[in-house]
Design brief:
Helix content is about 35%, strand content about 20%. It is of the alpha/beta class. β9, α4 and β10 form a beta-alpha-beta unit.
Length: about 325
């Protein structure tokens, strides 16, 4: 069989012949139908993810959609490096598999689950969003940020502010449910003031950027907040703008600000599993928030570092080659 294989950290994987998987007790072999490429996958393949791990060679791919020997369509969550989902077949613990609801396209599910689960877990498990609250999504033009806007509206947010650097992408996010937008491409004082005007009374911030945008957002919010004792729940999800930010201690004393993270280690495994099952059941009612390009896995080396427009995603189709990838791309473009 064939798989994508990384031989040097930070280098694109190659499409190579590899041995068939041999399942351990409690495992089953799954034929992989779709595995998405996104920042977490690249981070694992580069050895740069905060969970660590640099064993080589490795097969990239964090999750995906496959089919079991009895024909069931299943979602495969959170494989452990060096064993990833970008292979024709993989061995997976049977009790980890999650049924995919009837009628959903494997490529669309593979494209949606990582960004949607990022937002779903952050909103429900970490922010504990309540209906009627106000949400600021910092970094709303990426795949996860777009999903966060859609899910915040779906979960009852009364007002959603979307912040991002690309004005055109921000316009598109308005169509997903954002009431107001903040552009991050101006001078610092103007950006901070824009946050103060648009999101001063936010209850929840989902932060996919960190670094300078987070500094400007928190500064602007605290300058203009009507009631500084009103709780502000800041959930740090990603660091697309940079890994560090300056946080003056006075900001935490002048207002009721709670900062927490949402990531692989932020909640117990059983709660993460329950949240993923809940999201899968909810997926049929959600409209797609990203454009999907489905490619045969044989093109992984060339496509690995290909730039994509904001809100787009590559999904590799390990089994079935180009014909299946083309059909899957058309299906996913039509929605799940």
């Amino acid at each position: 069989m064939y798989a994508a294989v990384v031989h040097a950290l930070g280098q694109p994987p190659r499409y190579e012949s590899v041995p068939e998987p041999v399942p351990e007790p409690g495992e089953v072999v799954v034929e992989m139908l779709a595995a998405a490429l996104y920042p977490l996958v690249r981070a694992f393949a580069s050895g740069g993810h905060y969970t660590g791990g640099d064993a080589l060679p490795l097969t990239p791919g964090f999750d995906g959609v496959g089919r079991t020997a009895d024909g069931a369509l299943v979602y495969v969550p959170a494989t452990e490096p060096p064993h990833g989902t970008m292979a024709e077949r993989i061995a997976v613990p049977a009790d980890a598999l999650m049924p995919v609801p009837d009628g959903l396209d494997p490529v669309a599910v593979a494209a949606a689950m990582n960004p949607a689960s990022s937002a779903w877990i952050a909103l429900r498990e970490r922010a504990r969003l309540r209906p009627g609250e106000s949400v600021l999504v910092l970094g709303a033009t990426g795949n996860a940020g777009r999903a966060a806007v859609r899910l915040a509206r779906d979960q009852g947010a009364a007002e959603i502010v979307a912040a991002g650097r690309d004005p055109r992408a921000l316009q598109a996010v308005s169509g997903l449910g954002a009431d107001r937008t903040v552009a991050l491409d101006g001078p610092d004082e103007e950006v901070a003031a824009a946050f103060g005007s648009a999101a001063a009374d936010a209850d929840v911030v989902l932060d996919y950027l960190w670094e300078r945008p987070a500094e400007l957002a928190l500064d602007g919010i605290l300058r203009c907040r009507t009631d500084l004792a009103r709780p502000l729940r800041w959930v740090q999800v990603g660091s697309a703008a940079g890994p560090d930010m300056t946080l003056p201690s006075a900001w935490l004393r002048k207002a009721d600000v709670s900062i927490c993270g949402s990531g692989l280690g932020s909640i117990p495994g059983f709660r993460r599993t329950a949240a993923l099952r809940e999201l899968l059941a909810h997926l049929p009612s959600l409209e797609p928030t990203s454009e999907v390009t489905a490619l045969p896995l044989s093109e992984v080396e060339a496509a690995w570092q290909s730039p994509l427009p904001s809100g787009s995603r590559i999904v590799f189709v390990p089994s079935g080659g180009g014909a299946r990838a083309s059909a899957a791309s058309e299906a996913s473009a039509a929605g799940a």
